[in-house]
Hints:
Number of strands: 19
Distance between the termini: 6 Å
Number of helices: 11
CATH topology: Rossmann fold
Order of helices and strands: EEEEEHHEHEHEEEHEEEHEEHHEEEHHHE
Radius of gyration: 19 Å
CATH superfamily: LarA, N-terminal domain
Number of domains: 1
Amino acid sequence: MDRRSFVRLLAAAPLARTAGADTPPKVSVVSRYAPAAVPGMPGPFPGRVVAVHSERSVDIVTSAADAEVVREMMARGMRQLTGAATTEDAWRRFFEPQDVVGIKVNCGGHPWVVSDHGLVAETIRQLMAVGIPAENVCIYERFQNQMDNVNYAPHVPAGVKIVAAESANRRVDNRGYDPATYVEADLFGEEDTRSNMMRLVSETLTKVINIPNVKDHGATGATGCLKNIAYGSFSNVARTHHNGVSHTRTFVGTLASVEPLRSRTVLQIMDGLRGVWHAGPFARTRKYVFYPRKLFFGTDPVAIDRLLLDIIDDKRKEMGAISIHDRSPRYLKVDDGRARDADPNVNIIIREPGHVEYAASLGLGIADLAKIEVEAVEV
Length: 379
């Protein structure tokens, strides 16, 4: 059954900020790239989100997705977003045969919550349908070991490239990063104060599709479009949160705004088939996995991520956990990283969900969060 409804997402109370983080750290952005006339973020549909739901999309017993249902959800979401009469025309709204397209996946939630294999495969199939050869499509992530665990290769056409910037989160090999495109910031007196953009993004790709997951995060409250594209395209980003304090409020949006990443990221497809409501961005146990069974489509990462904050916070409230907006020091336990995984009422960092609002202030999305519009489609 096809059921559509239109709702307006009203902004909640102002997103509180961590004490001590009111003064943003000084940053210096270095890039030789000029912005496009119409940057990919927020793109042609600022403030608009299409949310496609299907109860048939995921078997919550096995956690397996139904590829045919996912394909239909993708087609409906893209047509609804663009207003195109056909699915191919919807994809042609963003892509041309000469494009070299990167698909920014999220592999950190292995084994339970990663960018779905079928969703990624269908994205590639649609890119090829508009004339882009498989050799001009790259699935990318920062760490090769995470990509190896998820193993997209058997699910996608021959010729598709699978690219990582470094072997693992060890910071021993920086050859995959562009030395001339970076953000300089001394956040906690760390030795290495530079975060460099992946060479693939700055030197090879012409377009980027962002496919994040619905996930809780200990430093930002939730990790979706903004953090996936920003922290997943730059080196040396874990340094932004330390000893209970997070500078993610400003740093996530700053990274996402760097050219050419901002201009080339033209489509956001959030994978909400499965989600993590606590202990994210990882999903080492199924204990904190839940099943929204939704896909979210848009060009505005701020709009989708503002919706994400409510999805995660509502689920945490349902499960009796503290809110991602809670700033009380009584929940903070910085001396034991395991506490986050063990207790949903413990923070190891005071969270900064205000990164969404800050990204809006940089022009990455709709300025007035009270005007975000969500169009719900049932498949």
